[in-house]
Amino acid sequence: MEVELETIDKDGYFGGSLLESNTHVVIPILEAGLAELKNVWPDNYAGELHRAENYAREKKLKIWEN
């Protein structure tokens, strides 16, 4: 596991990415339709995260079934 720290906001919250083998751990979860994006930090993975969520939405997987 690797943590990439991108930013710390005014309230002290950390924003970044959690990686396993150079893959953001959330991408497979989004692709399976098991999660949805809420507040995405403008980081290096934002585009990949949105593509993964859109894939699940188009395929109507899990939370996007209805």
Q: What key phrases describe this protein's structure?
A:
66 residues; alpha+beta; OB fold (Dihydrolipoamide Acetyltransferase, E2P); three-stranded antiparallel beta sheet; 2 helices; 30% helix; globular
Can you characterise this structure?
The protein is an alpha+beta fold and 66 residues long. It has a single domain (2-64), classed as OB fold (Dihydrolipoamide Acetyltransferase, E2P) (Beta Barrel). Helix content is 30%, strand content 24%. The chain has 2 helices and 3 strands; from the N terminus they run βββαα. The protein has helices at residues 26-31, 46-59, and strands at 2-8, 14-20, 23-24. The protein has a 3-stranded antiparallel beta sheet with strand order 1-2-3. Strand 1 and strand 2 (14-20) form a beta hairpin. It is globular.
CATH fold label:
OB fold (Dihydrolipoamide Acetyltransferase, E2P)
Shape: globular
Structural category is alpha+beta
Overall mean confidence score, pLDDT: 85
**Largest sheet report:** 3 strands, antiparallel
The ordered string of helix (H) and strand (E) elements is EEEHH
The low-confidence parts are none
Return the CATH class: Mainly Beta
Please render the helix and strand layout as text.
Layout: E1 2-8, E2 14-20, E3 23-24, H1 26-31, H2 46-59
Antiparallel strand pairs: 1-2, 2-3
Protein name: TNase-like domain-containing protein
Domain TNase-like: 4-66
Pfam families: SNase
